[in-house]
């Protein structure tokens, strides 16, 4: 079942995995906003209620995530793995995520990067999502036989913090400059009020996006890290390069 | 002056630099063929007559390059730098190439990669082309004042041999599978008869492209290495990922 | 117990680990064929029956692996870990593999690479095999006390797909050009008929080997990735370099 | 002309390039000693008289180099490039070195590594030697037409200091443990008395070799860095791995 | 509770994690000795009794570790995770280590590096320690609520063997040249008599430290690998660079 | 001769090399401001008048640089190498810079990074400065005999743009948060009015510094890249780690 019925058929459907209720918004919220404004569907899969964080109750954080997803034009579901700060890279988890990929059948999956020096839940979810992307297209996994195999067209990693930007993958930049996109993204981040009261998370993300924008001659841009080389039909589809300064 | 008047205005114009008369064909000929077949203009700048090679006279190699460029739908010019096997990374050379960029005013420039373990002329030309891409947009360089600054939108490196594929840049893959593209590219490589008689250059390149194609679920694909991150307006423009096996 | 009694004493005995019934053949089958033809013994340890794959029943895949091993002159055994698509990096698994190393006592162990972007069973088996190679020589591990410690002389990684070639390890190339070697390897790959019907696996591997061969001035060559630096008594043993083009 | 007529025909002939009179001895002297003791010929090409160093006159340093080469069983010649501390990466220099490779016709060439953070003459000579190895086999370079093309079988980099060990190339270790080899190497280093009086160069090199030896379960070992992958006929030729601790 | 009451308040308190009873001493013992001699407190947390090693009973190894810690001026405690050669990267372990960080409240934590090619317990403990350093400052982890959050100021990795030196992190060098420091460190290593009888571990570590010392113009120096960039108030605090030869 | 007589003797003297009149200010101006405010002396060596840039006459840019240096508490001199956009990596240039190092005799030298993808003058000046740092301490270079050898204690690279941050060197962060430091740095950048009118250079640098600051829990911080490992007497001197989020 596609999560969003009003998605234009020729536009890619997105599925974003997040370890905690605010990871997707902080790591790639502007990209989501731009995609949904142009007609793509987007669905979030959040793997904890943030119950180990310093601030906010699980109920509060669930409500914040639901409000934030709505601001970004996305649907959201919560799943149980091992719990916040307890996630492990179990094969059963990858199979569970693969089952979700088969159900939602997105074109593009987004997941936290695998960089080592970040919250352990982030990098483990990234590994699980990468494994799940493979398992989703194998026909013989017993737990997955209820739904037909599905192959996504792209797995893109996002980085919740600067330290999470992977050194071994090249970045692409997505322009999120339109004022309504910056506004929607900012509102979605601020919807996580339990988190943004204590730390400068929103400023951190806007500063990162502004720096990417300044490099590329844009207002704001967000970096994503494709897991595999991008394939294009011709040079005309390649986009422009980021060099501006 | 644009080299090709029949280029569709919305399609990118290409300029490819080659150190020797056959480098462009072996390193990115299939990409050129695909681009020109879809309406892009392409111009080749060749920086020697191959006069230090083991086979072929300068006159013979010039004729081969001209025939090959025509098969790829490109124009070609020869310039004098230091000569085959004698190229050095002089600032004056970078300025000379910048002047060509200002004259031709391409959207995309292609140049040999900067990987160290290849023919020294290749990596030096790659460095010169990268420097030239910057200098072309500075207004104050005295030697360049005759023509207005020009900023290309992309600098893409190609690898003449597998060893020349740069370890520090990510690849994009361009689909060159259509039979007429493979045929045009193969004919362009074989037009360098003085070179292909002695070594398996054509088979090497087709094997590389077939391997990329097998990885990506295509017939043949060629790898290019963008100098800077690609910027996209949205995820919908990103192309698909190469993972197939 | 050595798996093969007719191994010449001065030639190295090989043990190859595979996650699925066809991994060894696709990843290093030509190397195995060349080694056994020159008198080395070879033993395969396969850690699943491929029961999660898209094609072929466990019984069918077991029979294919047995036929394929015989074509390569190797013996084969199957072990139970967590099952296909379910392998985890448990310490108990590494100890189990260490026990097999102590029983078979090979000189050289081969295992799938640790590159991240491949089937998760592959990289996890590579990690387990590397850990097992260490544990096999520690005297105090309780589960291993039944057999004396054993130190292999080399751990070599193979890459089942191009994406699995590790970026952080240098390659060595093994010449598999003799026609009878290519034929034996091809026959061993084709023995996995349940897999080769649906995808171009055999062509992929032969294309990879042909590309390595073209680089090195040979017919076909396969890349292996030593886990540790190679030690030589003198420069005379170093072999030649691969540069050909 | 081969520099040493009493070289056994089946053993590789070595040519080592050094920027200063003591670089070869400090960077790979033990390897040279081991090779010449086993019957290989060795020839040194030294590209300055060390005239910019803090200690020792050119005449003194020339005499030291000649004595040291003799202790290692090698012949030595001095060539003029730009002078000590003045070396530049000129194409003409690479062609000059290529001419020497054609005259001496070694199997193996040794040169200082290309690591950036070392004496600039070292890395530039390494680049020149790598380029020269290619140019030596091209038939058309005018300056080289007097002698037939020559292809070496291996280019190996040595590191004069720990900082010069290249991060992007894998090492091989050569066992230099036999006491007569350590003694010959030590004597050759100490023959450069003008240098060893002021600094702990000899201890530095012996400490490096002892550390490599401890890693590999040997007395002393020296690291070399092949420019290209090593090609072997079979796994039996691969040597053992270095893991010992 | 701080482990050592006589620590000067302005000096950093250290906590070192070790997988086996001798890892801390071999990997960073000289640094510990220098710190405690200058007034820092140091506490060791050892995660096994070395019961899987080739030599020494658990009781013997415990006694050796206690003697060694005393020689270094440190306190020591043993904790139970999965046992020697059985350690796994479980979230519960990271939380357990985080609880110790909250109890001891050190300024600096030291842990084995995450390099892949070493004893698996080492790299897994390094991962656990890095994760624990994050979890120690999150207020919501249920198992940790008994003690207030604690943020260390630095996580430093040490390398028990040369292979364990991480390729992706830069090193800092700590001068351990004073004779009394070398003596205390050597005595602490030799206190592990069950290990040093069979292998040249002490010589290995002293050789490593001497090589670092020779590079930096010191007697002996040990390398540590900060997990995160170091922050300084001004250039005056940066220390000098290591270049000496 | 030290450039600034009122430098406190125990504080390091700084010498910064810049290719163009504004490079030092944009790349490390905040660090300079902080150092001079605490009593260090600072001297700038600028290697062109910016005569190839798009904006500003040489006279104008010279005046801007002099005003800017004064705002940072530094002295400035201009030298002639090959001119803006014409710089080459000549040995004679490195020797010229070495002569300046011998005259000024700084403790710390700052130079643009060697990253490839930036203005060619920047990376070439970085190479020249690194080479000069070595040559300055060799006693035999004829051109340098007039002044005694000098060894700096640190060579630090700065990055004028984000693309110039070197991937192969680790960063240290210098806190430039005090309001008077940010103000002095901003004023120094804005003193280059010919450049800041056309592009967002000042915002780019402040955004970079704010992002570093947010990562480290500070207001603003600038990254520098030591050429060699830092050596410390003890862990107490190491500074804190940057991890904050």
In short:
The structure is a homohexamer of 245-residue chains. With 245 residues, chain A is an alpha/beta fold.
Structural description of this entry:
The structure is a homohexamer of 245-residue chains. Chain A has 7 helices and 9 strands. With 245 residues, the first copy, chain A, is α/β, with parallel strands linked by helices. In chain A, strands 3-2-1-4-5-7-6 form a 7-stranded mixed beta sheet, with helices on both faces. In chain A, helix 3 (91-104) packs across helix 4. The longest helix of chain A has 16 residues, at 120-135. Chain A is globular, with a radius of gyration of 17 Å. The first copy, chain A, starts with 13 loop residues before the first strand and ends with a strand. Chain A binds chain E through residues 50-55, 82, 84-88, 116-117, 119-120, 163, 167, and chain E through 89-92, 94-95, 114, 127, 130-131, 134-135, 137-142, 149, 168, 227-228.
Secondary structure: elements and pairs:
Six copies of one chain form a homohexamer.
Chain A: E1 14-18, H1 23-37, E2 42-46, H2 58-71, E3 75-78, H3 91-104, E4 108-112, H4 120-135, E5 154-158, E6 172-175, H5 179-190, H6 193-196, H7 201-216, E7 221-226, E8 230-232, E9 240-241
Parallel strand pairs in A: 1-2, 1-4, 2-3, 4-5
Antiparallel strand pairs in A: 5-7, 6-7
* Poorly predicted runs of chain A: 1-9
Query: So what's the oligomer here?
Result: homohexamer
| Helical residues, percent of chain A | 25-40%
What sort of overall outline of chain A do the alpha carbons produce when their principal axes are compared? globular
* Overall pLDDT metric of chain A: 93
Biggest chain pair interface: A-B, 44 and 44 residues
Largest beta-sheet characterization of chain A: 7 strands, mixed
User: How many DSSP H or I helices of chain A?
Assistant: 7
Termini separation of chain A: 45 Å
The helix-and-strand class of chain A reads alpha/beta
Radius of gyration of chain A: 17 Å
Strand numbers in spatial order across the main sheet of chain A: 3-2-1-4-5-7-6
Strand content of chain A: 15-25%
Number of strands of chain A: 9
- What string gives the helices and strands of chain A in order? EHEHEHEHEEHHHEEE
